[in-house]
Amino acid sequence: MSEVSVPLPEREKLTKKALTADHPTWCPGCGDFAVLAAFYKMLEKRQLPHENIVTLAGIGCSSRFPYFMNTHGAHFIHGRAVPLASGVSLARPDLHIFLFGGDGDGFSIGGNHLDHGARKNIRMTYVIMDNFVYGLTKKQTSPTSPIGYRSKTDPTGVIDHPVNPIKKLIAAGATFVARTHATQINHMIQIMERAMDHDGFSVVECLSECIEFYPGAFDAGNPRKGGEFKVIDEKKWDDTPEDESRHDVTNEIAAYQLADIPFPGLFGVFYETDRPTKNALEKKWVEATRSKLGEPSDLELLQNTFDRMK
Ligand SMILES: Cc1ncc(C[n+]2csc(CCOP(=O)(O)OP(=O)(O)O)c2C)c(N)n1
Ligand code: SF4
Ligand SMILES: [Mg+2]
C-alpha cells in the first residue's frame, strides 16, 4: 500500500494578537508595560514556534507577566521561578524558557536559587524587572533600593548597602549578563534577542520604573528626562586602534569594572562566555547510562526502579 502524505497546515504568523492573553493590570505608567511590549515585538520578529514558548515567573507585580502571555506558562511561588524553569528546561530542551520577575523575587527570596541556576548554567532567559522596590506589597525596601530611599520598612531612609545585580550575576556564574532600561524599547528588544540566542543561563537586568512607589527612579538613565543612556561600546575585533579601548564581553574583570560605574551606569552586554550547559552535560550522561543498560525505554527504567524498591 502506498503511503499518503498529509500536508501540514500552513503555520499562522505569530502576532501580538496571538501572543496576548489578559489585559495587563499594572498601574497606568508602570515601566513593566514597556517590557511586555518589547517581548511581544521580539517574539513577532523572531517567529518562534508558538507552542515552544514558555513564560514563567515568581510573585510580584512584574511576575504577573505570564498572565498576559498566550504561551505555556506559570505564575509560581515567590522566588521559585528558577527551580521551576530548571526542571522544564532540563526535561524539554526543545522549548524556549523565559522567566520574568522583580528585584525582590530574584535577589531576596529567590537569591539562592538564582545563584545555583546560574552556576549550573541551565538554559533559560531571565529578565529581572528591577524597580528598586517591592511594588506588589506596596513599598518595602528591596535588595536594590539605594541608600537613603524612604520605604515602609525604612521610613528614615535605607541604610544597607544595595546589591550590584551585574556583579552578583557574574560572580554567581551566569554566562550572559546584560542591562537595559524600559524606556529604551529598541535596546530592550536587541538585548532580549541576544539573551535568547545565548546557549546557557542568560540574565537581563531591566530598569523598570514603579510609578506608584518610586517615581523618577531611573530618570538619570533616560534622555527624555534629562538623563543619559550610555551604551557599552563592545569590541568589534576589526583590528582598528579604536577597538583597543572597546569592551571585550568575555573579560570578566573588565565586566566587573564596568559594573562599578556609579548609577545610572552603563547599558548593554557586560559579560558573555561559553561554558557547557547542564542541559548538554546531563544529556550526555543520560545517553551514556542508557547505552550501558542496553537502551531501555522510559517505562522499563521506571519499572526497574520500582522493582528495586520491592
Ligand atoms: C513566601 C512569600 N513571602 C513573601 C511574599 C510577599 N511578597 C509578594 S511579592 C513580594 C515582593 C515583590 O517585589 P519584587 O519582586 O521586586 O516585584 P515587584 O512587585 O516590585 O515587581 C513579596 C515580599 C510572598 N508572596 N510569599
Ligand atoms: S505598584 Fe509599581 S510595579 Fe506594581 S504595577 Fe504599580 S507601578 Fe508597576
Ligand atoms: Mg521590585
Could you please describe the fold and organization of this structure?
- With 310 residues, this protein is an alpha/beta fold.
- It folds into two domains: 16-275, Thiamin diphosphate (ThDP)-binding fold, Pyr/PP domains (Rossmann fold), CATH 3.40.50.970; 278-310, no CATH class.
- The protein has helices at residues 16-19, 32-46, 81-91, 103-109, 111-120, 165-172, 185-197, 252-259, 278-292, 298-309, and strands spanning 53-57, 72-75, 96-102, 124-130, 133-134, 140-141, 176-181, 201-207, 230-231, 266-272.
- Strand 9, helix 8 (252-259) and strand 10 form a beta-alpha-beta unit.
- Helix 2 (32-46) packs across helix 7 and helix 4 crosses helix 5.
- The longest helix has 15 residues, at 32-46.
- The model has no long low-confidence stretch (mean pLDDT 96).
DSSP strand tally: 10
Question: Strand sequence of the main sheet, in spatial order?
Answer: 2-1-3-4-8-7-10-9
Order of helices and strands: HHEEHEHHEEEHEHEEHEHH
The tally of helices reads 10
Multimeric status of the protein: single chain
CATH architecture grouping of the largest domain:
3-Layer(aba) Sandwich
Low-confidence stretches: none
Bound molecule kinds, no repeats: thiamine diphosphate, iron/sulfur cluster, magnesium ion
| CATH class category name of the largest domain | Alpha Beta
CATH topology of the largest domain: Rossmann fold
- Average the pLDDT over all residues and give the rounded result: 96
Total number of distinct structural domains = 2
Distance between the termini: 48 Å
- How much of the sequence is in beta strands? 15-25%
